[in-house]
Structure formats: C-alpha cells, structure tokens
Amino acid sequence: PPRVSERVAHRQSIRLGRTMKLPCPVEGDPPPLIMWTKDGRNIHSGWTRFRVLQHALRIKEVEAEDAGTYICKATNGFGSVNINYTLIVIDDSSSRSGAGMANGDSEHAPELAGKLVRPRFTQPSKMRKRVIARPVGSSVRLKCTASGNPRPDIVWLKDSRPLVDEDGGAGGGGEGKKKKWTLSLKYLTPEHSGKYTCHVSNRAGEINATYKVEVIQRTNSKPILTGTHPVNTTVDYGGTTSFQCKVRSDVKPVIQWLKRVEPGDENKFNSTIEVGDHRFVVLPTGEVWSRPDGSYLNKLLITRAKEEDAGMYICLGANTMGYSFRSAYLTVLPG
Question: Which residues pair with 141 in a beta bridge?
Fold first, then answer.
C-alpha cells in the first residue's frame, strides 16, 4: 500500500493573499492516485485558485474562507493512506476579536501597532460579477469585504450619492460593522436600478468597487428580435461565417434556426415544416446565451460553406406567449 515518505506538520498557517503549498509526500508501487478534499468536498479543476500538483496542493491568493481541514488521500490497488491538515488563515490587517481596532486601540494586535496597511478586498472571487440583472421582486447581495490597518470604514453610494442605512444600525459594535461589508437589496423595484459603489478607506489609503444593478420589469409578452440581426451575409466557398440572433424576452426563450428548402430539394430532408408558403428544415441549434441586459443571444455557425448552404435562413424566437422571426440570406461565392 502507499506510505508517507516524510514527516509533515499537520497544522499549517498562511497569511491572507499569499500562496500556500500543502505537501503530500507519498510513495507506493504502483504509484498511488492522489485526491484532495477540503472539509469533505473534493477539490477539482473548477476551484480556480487551487492546483493539485504531483506531491502537493497549491492555493493561490489565499482567502479567509480557505481555512479548514484538508485531506490528501493516496490510493493504489493495495490500499490507501491519508494525510490530514488544518489550515489557519492569518488576517493580519484587521482584528477579529471584537471592535478593538475600530476605535484605534490595537491591544489585540500588538505586532501591528503603528503599522499602516492600506485596504484590500479579501474576497475578490465573490466580486467578479459586476453587472447584475434581476427581475422585480427578487433580491441581490453586493459584497465588498475588505481588510486593512487600522480597520477600514465602508461607505455605500448609489449613483454617487451616499446610501442611507435603512437598518438604522450605523455600524455601532462589531456585528453592525460586519454586516456593512455586504449590501443586501430585497424586494427589488425598478427604482433600485443603478450603480452601487463601495468606498473603503483608512488612514493608509482607499479602494472602490462598483456594481451595476438592473431591475427588469416582468411583462408577459412574446419575444422581440432586437437590433438588426440576422443580416444578409456573403461567404467564400469553403469559408466560415455566422448569423446572429438577439432576442428580448421576459422568460428564457427557445431560439431556433430554420433554412428554406429550395424547390425540388424537399425529398432530401426527413422532416420539414411549413412557414407561410415555404417549407423549412430545422437546423441544430447551439447554446442560448443570456446577456446582462436581459436579452438572449444565439449564433448559427456555418463552416466549410458549400453551394447548398446558400439561401434564406430564419431566426425564430418563441416563449409561452408566442413567437417572432426574422430572415436573412446567405450568398456563397464560387470557389
């Protein structure tokens, strides 16, 4: 069975924002398969800051939530062995023990007395989506968790004007402070739409982050094709081109591409549908992308264009309330 080839320290600590490497020194014959878990959950390639290396786990830009129990499990046909770690994340820029730092006394962090640290966002991964579209009546949470020394203050602005704290708690005491890192907007109305900025500052500096919130009115109507797409297109023989279709709809629509069957070609296709006086064949459709402005996008890709690809194409957008369509022509130049 696999065995641990050298001693490791089972308690590991790392400063916020640094890179951590947890070793997994195991050997065996045949070489064991390595798997890592955190607090019982498998670490996989979707964990963007985590990388499983040959004999270690690397964590980049460590965040406060990375603290916890890590297990390296090495398995081969003859058995398995585990190495357990407890990871402690040290946030040396704010005192976690109450509101001590907030009023300038640094008894909880003597090593930091006098050392100014400018604010930084401690959970950047939770701040990636900056344009947020939500329907009326839903809720949204905007995060700006930050650290620094002295512990920074946060002010939320809407469209550049300070927001009045609706909870009445203007950040007195630790709990109020903690809450203000996240701005919760509930029961959204169109008036909530706008740009929300968190302004985080202390004596050493300041940082900002802005979110754009769009509250979408729900009206039950059939989809609308917006913009000019699809547009007539010309492509060289053997070339690649695409048609686009942009649809505005309150619920996710079905977007389908159809191609008109040229007279005499009806028998080439297993199934065709009739729209108006013409027969059409339904084309395989790619993914429908939803955009931050509440519209939906779909692309029809035509690769290695041949003569028979030329003709009339239709983009059809449908939801439970009805459908809309628009046509465009493809011309294929002879090779």
Answer: 184
